[in-house]
Every structure is written in structure tokens, then in C-alpha cells.
Specification:
Structural class of chain A: alpha/beta
Radius of gyration of chain A: 20 Å
CATH topology of the largest domain in chain A: Peroxisomal Thiolase, Chain A, domain 1
Largest interface: A-B, 44 and 55 residues
Number of domains of chain A: 2
CATH architecture of the largest domain in chain A: 3-Layer(aba) Sandwich
Number of strands of chain B: 23
Radius of gyration of chain B: 23 Å
Strand order of the largest sheet of chain A: 3-2-4-7-1-8-11-10-9
Oligomer: heterodimer
Structural class of chain B: alpha+beta
CATH superfamily of the largest domain in chain A: Thiolase/Chalcone synthase
Strand order of the largest sheet of chain B: 5-4-6-7-1-8-13-12-11
Helix content of chain A: 25-40%
Strand content of chain B: 25-35%
Number of domains of chain B: 2
Largest sheet of chain B: 9 strands, mixed
């Protein structure tokens, strides 16, 4: 029986670049910005890093494929470097590689860095890509908002929630994130927005309006991980450990088999259950002090609250409207603004989430600091609800 | 005449009807824009002469699988390809036997009636499907731009009890240039209307009709319904007067609400005529174009479904002239960088998967679950490893909407882009595009029907791929005055 990775690996240091439209920065500069912060935070030297994982989802936009962009940008000391790509779960996938390397004993210190330079595409939204020569013969070319918007209709149909009620709750999700983003110095969007503005925004994909959608950003985030023993040996007393790290990928059941009703994301449910088991969390509603979830679209965050077990099925609409996930609510969500406002440089997002949880656990979150945080959860969702990769991690303190 | 009869007929029009008043209004400053009367059928961005022909041909199969069909002829003067067998793609779309004889005919609007005439004369062992589709381009401002329309018709001929039998055939060749379209020019160039009408009566329709009536031992008064495409309005009236024909010409009605359908006009009109005819009625069918082909038929039964009547009665009218120009490839809009996706089709991929995608062929696994596409290991949770499938054609299987959205970000030539998951009654679930929504997003649980459509157009390489899309099961009924 596998023992899991709980408390086998700690985060020695983290860094995160400012996210946004970084017109003056290329991906190598963003990587260096995040890495220098992480290295300084870790108390380690670059030469101590024995392996590295680069997360970049869209290699054709500035970054490039293979390990070389990271190895070259950071002038890493001829170590094994692996590039990983798992759509929007890429950042967490990079962290998983580094954490597993240390947990296995293969190395003592490992680096995970996620980066994306999306604003070099020359237009808003994600790049348009083919789905492969076979799939292109039949599969629809939907946009990201289009694929996630379908959650809303299916959710309404399943629970009998009126479209305008759901739209109001979705608007609250975005309103809350804009409030939080205003407190994040490194966030892409730092302007609060009124509910009226959100509700009346132009439609992107029914029923998602402009403010129901996160934008795309340039940015990088980085973690240096090691063993608790090494961390303590260099004088670190307050340690944040990885309690759980789970990834779950669709096998086609949702999109090809006739059982899924489209109102939830099964992979998130499976990954969360495994993560709670691995972390030893029996009551996530009581134990989690904050969550950073994949709010690519407002409906995604709303449904994710149910998929993570933080709302009963069919009740997230009401929990959201009651403020349960606001910064002063019972389980704050996206206290840094989330994908919606902190930004979404795809390959970096999972590590950006971990960065915020790490800061909160160490009491370094400044104006955003929450009280009484013992565990924080991150959640990435790559692909689309009908064909996804879900990643859930739990971070916490270790004595 | 051999004992080859018309076994089935069917017709198809695209959903959209353009209100000609809108063109008259938009072009009023120029004096162009035509009469402004009636509507014309407009192909959706994802329809062409082949997709519409497939839809018409489906109507002739009824609940059958076309196993008797031994020969297929596809007729069109607006085929999307000069050298790619469209009849071959149609055979794949209908999942007919790959060994059937296939022929593509073109060169003149009368090619469909010529093909039908030969099919009735010669016959084959088994049945022959003659199907015509048309979606012709004409320059904005031209009469053709407003008078022409998009549509398709299909006729299944063979031995046995049919719905009409042929009494006689006639043909006249006369190089009357009512208009011509050159390979290089692409758009029609028209002659003076009065000249065309007089010459068509004097040298084409007049002699051909007289010859056919004489051969059949009939007079003009014996004809109950005429299916006579008019190169110019009033042509039929003039020729009919000379022959004492009093039969209504269904092509005038079709032209008013759907437009002149080119090679598909006589086959569409034949469907409409046989839907209205009583047993024993004589129907004169003509195909016009640098001469003409004429058939005189006798109705012996009714089509299984009134597809032509239904096509004329239902649709969606729009009056945005710029949208009309865009849909008819007459206006090149800058759709921005999101439209720049490279859609090159892999020939080897198409060779491996084209028959399944064109024919919408899924597979039934060992447990009975149906899926599309077939994969080495079935999606069924109980599948342990690779399996062989039993082919299942999904095009006529009842289906419902599982999820849907109207996507305004994704590029499509006619926004928004509707897509989602479709659940088939036999268990198959497929991510699909929806078509023919015309502003009304389908709801979860709504029934949908499958339509053969253009999947993607590679404008860099002038190629297109085809797949099936899900359409609302019923079209809106047109108001009487717009028909």
C-alpha cells in the first residue's frame, strides 16, 4: 500500500512574477523574475538544485518546447530538466514532478517552474489550435469559454436553478475575485467591478459574459522543494509541506459514454477525494482555511465548490450568494484574485496558486492575510469539463 | 421503354431564406437589386451542393439502407471540387456499397434531367439514385444573385411498383446563351431577357415539348402539372399558350420562394409535382440549358413524404444584406487572427477515417454499448482491452441535447458557434456542432436530427471536410407571404 507523499517534501522557497500584460518581458525574463525570488526565499544556492521541471502549456507562443528554455534561462548547472504539459493543470504537474523526485529520494532539492507568455499571440483569449488530424475531422473547434459555458446549462437543468439565479451567483464569483485582486500587488487586474457591470457585460458564450471569463496573462511562478530535514538544517523553522498532490485525467467517459449529465467535473471529485485521503483530511469544510481553485470561468468555480465537497450538490449557488467563499467567508476562495484577476498564464497558474497558499500559511500575505489557516487547497482543471485533467494539492504546516 | 420507374423522390432546401426586399433596399441607390419580391434560399456557411444533395438523397431512402442501389449520379454546376468524386463522398455519407457505380455530371443545368432520362431509359440491375445539388455564386447586383437559390432534389429509379412511370423522353440541343459561366470567370454572364425568352420558346422548349407530346400521343391539355425551369420569367406562359397547356408550373412557385435551383430545380420540382399529383396525372419535366431535356411521366402513386412541400413551408427569413453577401461568398470580411487557424487536412488521416466520419459510423462493443468514434479500447467502463466493433450508423438514430452553448469567441463564418454534447438513443454520445439554430440556442433535452455538413474549410488550400451536425428537429413555419 503506497504511503503517499504527506510531509515527505517541504517548500523551501517560492517566487512569482507580476502577472499581466508584460509587453517588455519575454518568457526567459519572467522565469528569472520568479526564480530569483524563490531562490532568495529558499536559502539555498542554485548549484544545490539537482533536477528541474518546466511547465509550459503552449510551447508555440514564445517559450518553446523541451527542457532548454528553462535550463538556458536560469543557466542551470547541467542537471536533468523535464518539460511537462497538461493543459491548464501544467503548473501543478511541474510541481508534482519536483515533489515526487524529492519524495522518492532521487534528489534532495528540485525545482518546479511554470511560465507562459500568452500576450505574444497578438489577440485576446487562448491560441486556436487543432485537435490533431483525426479529431479535426469531427470534433468541434469550441473556445474555452464555450466548453465551460455548457456546465451552466447542464447544472441548471439538473438542479432546476433558474438561469437568472445562476447568473447572479456566477456574477458574485467574479465580483468577489475582483475585490480580492485589488489587494494583490502582483495581480493582472486590480480594479473592483460592480455586480451591475458584471451582469450587463457582453456575452462571450451563453451564459458567460465578459466578466465571467478570466483573461490570459504573461507570468511565471516557481517552487524549490526539498526534504524537511534539509530545510531544518539550513535554519528554516516554519515549514510548509506538501500534504497531498493528486492528478486525475479523463478516459473519455464523460464525452463518449452516456452517463455523465454535464453538471459537474468528475475528475475534480476523484482527485479531491484522493487528496483528502492522502492529506488525512476527513472534513474539508472544517479543515481547509482557503482554496485557490481553477476559476477560468465563474461557473467553473461555482461547480468546483461542489466537486471539492465544500458545498452540497445543487447548493453552491446559494453558498456563493451567502458569501461562504468570500474573503471574510467560512472558506475563502481566491483571496489573491484567482485566475480571474491575478491572471492566467496557463503553465504558471498551478504554481501561482501554491504561492498564495504558501504565503498564507507562513503569515506573509499582507493585506490579504487570513487568520487561522492550517491547510490550503489548490485546484487546476485542464481541458474542458467533458474531457479534463484535474489536479488537487493540499499544503499545510509541518512542525 | 424498359420497366424502370420512379420509385421515390425527395427534396431539400437550406433553412435560410433571404428577403429580396432587403437587397432592393440596400442596392436602391444603384438601381440594382431586382424586383424585391419573394425570398431565395441561402445555404448556410457549412452547406454546399454536396451536403444538400446528401440531405435530399436521404429522403429517397426512407427507412431503408439503400442496399438495392447499384448506381449513383451526382449532378451539379456548382460542385465544390472540379476533380474529387462528390458522388463518392455521397456514397460514403449514405453508407452505400462502395462498389456501386458512381458518376458526377455537370456542364449545364440540364445535366440532372439528362441523367434521370438516361437512368429511366437504360435502367440498371437494382436501383439508380440521381441526385442534384446546387449552390451557385453570382456577382452582387446581378439578376442571378437574387433570382438563384440553393437547394437539392433526388430521384430513385428502378424496377417494380413506383410512384411514376415515364411515357416519353425528348431532347433538343441549341446553344442559346441565356447566360454562361466560364471556368475562369466563375460568375454567370447573362444575355438580354427578351431575347432569351423568345428564343427559348422558339428553338428550345417549343420544339422539345411538341416532340414529346407527339411521341406520347398527348396534347398540351393532357399535362396536369408542369415542372419547367424558366430561364426568364414568362417563358413557360409563352410556350404553354402555343401548346394549349394549362397546367400550373411548379417551378414558378419554387423560384418565387426559394429561387432558381439550377440543376436541382427539375428534381425538386418533380418532388413537388408528385406530392400534388393524383394517380394518372401526366407531369412534364424539363431540364433547361443550351437546349433541353424533356420527360413526360404519369403519376402512379404518392411519395412517402412531402419533402418538397415541407421544404417550401418551413424556414427562417433574414433580411440582412451584408450577412447574405457573406454567406454567399460575396463579401470578404476580416475575421481577425482567431480565424487564422491552420485547417490543413491530412490525406492519410482522411483515407483511414473518412468513411466513418462521412457516414457517421460508430461501433457497438461486446457489451452492446455504442460509441463514436471507434477506439482501440472501448469507452465502456467494463472494457478490458482492444475489441472489434459492429458498425452502427448514427445519422438516423434519435438524439437529444446533453449540453450546448452559443460561443461568440470561437471563429465561425456565421456566428455564434453552437456546440455541445449530443446523446443518442442507442447510447452513443458525441461532441458535436449544432446547426440551423438561427439565434435560438437549443435547450438541454431538446431532440435533434443529424445533418450532413461541411466540417471545416481550409481556405489556404481550397479544401473542405465533411461531418455531421445536430439540428433542431423541426424548422419554423414560414408566414404565407414569405413563401
Amino acid at each position: 500500500m503506497a504511503s503517499g507523499i504527506k510531509d515527505k517534501v517541504v517548500i523551501a522557497g517560492m517566487g512569482c512574477s507580476t502577472f499581466g500584460e508584460r509587453w517588455d518581458m519575454s518568457s526567459d525574463m519572467l522565469m528569472v523574475e520568479a526564480f530569483q525570488e524563490a531562490l532568495a526565499d529558499s536559502g539555498l544556492e542554485k548549484k544545490q538544485i539537482e533536477a528541474a521541471w518546466l511547465g509550459s502549456a503552449l510551447d508555440d507562443v514564445n517559450v518553446g518546447n523541451s527542457a532548454l528554455p528553462l535550463a538556458t534561462a536560469l543557466r542551470l548547472p547541467s542537471i536533468p530538466v523535464t518539460r511537462v504539459e497538461n493543459m491548464c493543470a501544467t503548473g501543478t504537474e511541474a510541481l508534482r514532478g519536483a515533489v515526487y523526485a524529492v519524495a522518492s529520494g532521487a534528489c534532495d532539492v528540485a525545482l518546479a517552474l511554470g511560465v507562459e507568455k500568452l500576450k505574444d499571440t497578438g489577440f485576446g483569449g487562448l491560441p486556436i489550435r487543432t485537435k490533431g488530424s483525426v479529431n479535426d475531422l469531427w470534433m468541434p473547434y469550441g473556445s474555452a469559454p464555450g466548453t465551460f459555458a455548457q456546465l451552466a446549462g447542464a447544472y441548471s437543468a439538473r438542479y432546476g436553478i433558474a438561469a437568472d439565479e445562476l447568473k447572479k451567483a456566477m456574477a458574485h464569483v467574479s465580483w468577489k475575485s475582483h475585490q480580492n485582486g485589488a489587494l494583490s500587488e502582483k495581480a493582472h487586474l486590480r480594479k473592483p467591478v460592480s455586480m451591475e457591470t458584471i451582469l450587463n457585460a457582453p456575452m462571450i458564450a451563453d451564459p458567460l459574459g465578459l466578466f465571467d471569463c478570466c483573461g490570459v496573462s504573461d507570468g511565471a511562478a516557481c517552487a524549490i522543494v526539498t526534504t524537511p530535514e534539509i530545510a531544518r538544517s539550513i535554519g528554516k523553522n516554519h515549514l510548509v509541506s506538501v500534504k497531498a498532490l493528486q492528478v486525475c485525467a479523463s478516459n473519455g467517459w464523460e464525452s463518449q459514454y452516456g452517463e455523465w449529465d454535464g453538471s459537474y467535473v468528475r475528475n475534480t471529485r476523484i482527485a479531491a477525494r484522493r487528496a483528502y485521503d492522502e492529506a488525512g483530511i476527513s472534513d474539508p469544510r472544517a479543515d481547509l482555511g482557503l482554496t485557490e481553485v481553477h476559476d477560468c470561468f465563474s461557473i467553473t468555480e461555482l461547480v468546483t465548490m461542489e466537486d471539492l465537497g465544500l458545498s452540497d450538490d445543487g447548493r453552491a449557488v446559494f453558498d456563493v450568494l451567502d458569501g461562504k467563499f468570500d474573503r471574510d467567508g467560512a472558506i475563502p476562495c481566491q483571496v489573491d484574485g484567482g485566475l480571474k484577476c491575478f491572471g492566467h498564464p496557463v503553465g504558471a497558474s498551478g504554481l501561482r496558486m501554491a504561492y498564495e497558499v504558501y504565503q498564507q500559511l507562513l503569515g506573509r500575505a499582507g493585506e490579504r492575510q487570513l487568520s487561522d489557516v492550517n491547510f490550503g487547497l489548490t485546484h487546476n482543471l485542464g481541458g474542458q469539463p467533458s474531457n479534463s485533467v484535474a489536479a488537487v494539492s493540499v499544503l499545510g504546516r509541518i512542525e | 421503354m424498359p420497366d424502370t420507374q420512379i420509385l421515390a423522390v425527395a427534396a431539400y432546401l437550406p433553412l435560410l431564406r433571404f428577403d429580396r426586399k432587403a437587397a432592393r433596399s440596400a442596392l436602391g441607390w444603384s438601381g440594382l437589386g431586382g424586383s424585391g419580391r419573394g425570398t431565395r434560399a441561402v445555404a448556410g456557411w457549412d452547406e454546399d451542393s454536396l451536403t444538400m444533395a446528401v440531405e435530399a438523397a436521404r429522403g429517397t431512402l426512407g427507412s431503408g439502407d439503400g442496399a438495392d442501389i447499384a448506381r449513383v449520379t451526382f449532378a451539379s454546376t456548382s460542385s465544390p471540387f472540379i476533380d474529387r468524386s462528390q458522388s463518392g463522398v455521397l456514397i460514403e455519407a449514405l453508407q452505400l456499397n462502395p462498389a456501386v457505380e458512381a458518376l458526377d455530371v455537370s456542364g449545364t443545368r440540364r445535366c440532372a434531367v439528362a441523367a434521370l432520362s438516361r437512368a429511366l431509359a437504360n435502367g440498371v440491375a437494382g436501383a439508380e439514385l440521381v441526385v442534384a445539388g446546387e449552390d451557385r455564386h453570382a456577382q452582387p447586383g446581378s439578376s442571378a444573385s437574387m433570382n438563384w437559390g440553393a437547394g437539392a432534389g433526388a430521384v430513385l429509379v428502378g424496377k417494380g411498383q413506383g410512384i411514376a412511370k415515364v411515357l416519353t423522353r425528348a431532347c433538343v440541343n441549341f446553344d442559346l446563351l441565356d447566360f454562361y459561366t466560364s471556368a475562369k470567370g466563375g460568375d454567370p454572364y447573362a444575355a438580354e431577357d427578351r431575347f432569351v425568352r423568345d428564343e427559348a420558346v422558339a428553338h428550345v422548349y417549343g420544339p422539345a415539348f411538341r416532340a414529346a407530346l407527339k411521341q406520347a400521343g398527348l396534347t398540351g391539355a393532357d399535362i396536369a402539372i408542369a415542372v419547367v425551369p424558366e430561364p426568364v420569367s414568362g417563358t413557360y406562359g409563352q410556350v404553354a399558350r402555343g401548346l394549349k397547356m394549362t397546367a400550373p408550373n411548379v417551378c414558378e412557385e419554387i423560384a418565387a420562394s426559394a429561387g432558381e435551383l439550377g440543376s436541382a430545380m427539375p428534381l425538386f420540382g418533380l418532388s413537388l409535382a408528385l406530392e400534388r399529383a393524383n394517380a394518372g396525372d401526366r407531369v412534364l419535366v424539363a431540364g433547361f440549358g443550351n437546349g433541353c431535356e424533356v420527360l413526360i411521366l404519369e403519376a402512379t402513386g404518392k411519395p412517402a413524404a412531402a419533402t418538397a412541400t415541407e421544404a417550401l413551408d418551413r424556414g427562417a427569413v433574414f433580411n440582412n444584406y451584408l450577412r447574405f453577401l457573406s454567406l454567399t461568398d460575396s463579401l470578404s470580411l476580416d475575421w481577425g487572427p482567431r480565424a487564422e487557424v491552420n485547417q490543413k487536412t491530412s490525406a492519410s488521416t482522411l483515407a483511414r477515417h473518412g468513411r466513418d466520419t462521412h457516414g457517421f459510423v460508430g461501433g457497438r462493443d461486446a457489451r452492446g454499448n455504442v460509441q463514436f468514434p471507434k477506439t482501440p479500447i472501448p469507452v465502456s467502463p467494463l472494457a478490458e482491452g482492444p475489441e472489434q466493433y459492429e458498425d452502427v450508423v448514427l445519422r438516423d438514430v434519435p438524439a437529444k441535447v446533453t449540453s450546448v452553448t452559443a460561443d461568440r469567441l470561437n471563429f465561425t463564418p456565421d456566428p455564434p458557434f453552437y456546440f455541445g454534447l449530443v446523446q443518442f438513443e442507442n447510447g452513443a454520445r458525441v461532441a458535436m456542432e449544432y446547426c440551423d439554430c438561427e439565434g435560438a440556442t437549443p435547450k438541454v433535452g431538446d431532440p435533434v436530427a443529424m445533418r450532413f455538413r461541411v466540417k471545416a474549410i481550409d481556405r489556404q488550400r481550397n479544401f473542405r471536410t465533411y461531418f455531421w451536425k445536430a439540428a433542431p428537429i423541426e424548422r419554423p413555419v414560414l408566414a404565407k407571404e414569405t413563401k
